[in-house]
Amino acid sequence: MDWNLTNDRPIYLQLEEILLQAIASGQYPAGSRLPAVRELAAEAGVNPNTMQRALTDLEREGLLYSQRTAGRFVTDETERIRGKRRELAMTQIQIFLTSMKEMGFSAEEIVEMMEQAIRKEEEA
Description:
Blueprint: H1 11-24, H2 37-44, H3 48-60, E1 64-67, E2 71-74, H4 78-102, H5 107-123
Antiparallel strand pairs: 1-2
Helix pairs in contact: 1-3, 1-4, 2-3
């Protein structure tokens, strides 16, 4: 997993986003067991307490659950995961649209360019 952490926002929030992306993309599928906190923390290069905070927040959101002796698991609720995946996509779309509008493009121009990009991608 790619742990590109920056200093512009709290680390635990960035960890949450990275883990959420991994869950939404299927890197950690529904029902799968996550590596141990210390293992994830070592991989990300952060303090285990910081990783623990990110994981606890994802548990609160219902994306993870703990089994006392077995570790943490991704929820089996695929609809919840799909909903979070859709939220992530909508956030990215909103960022894109804002940027395009700041460059002076109209909604029609944005749609036209997106359709061109999709056609080009499908041809590749």
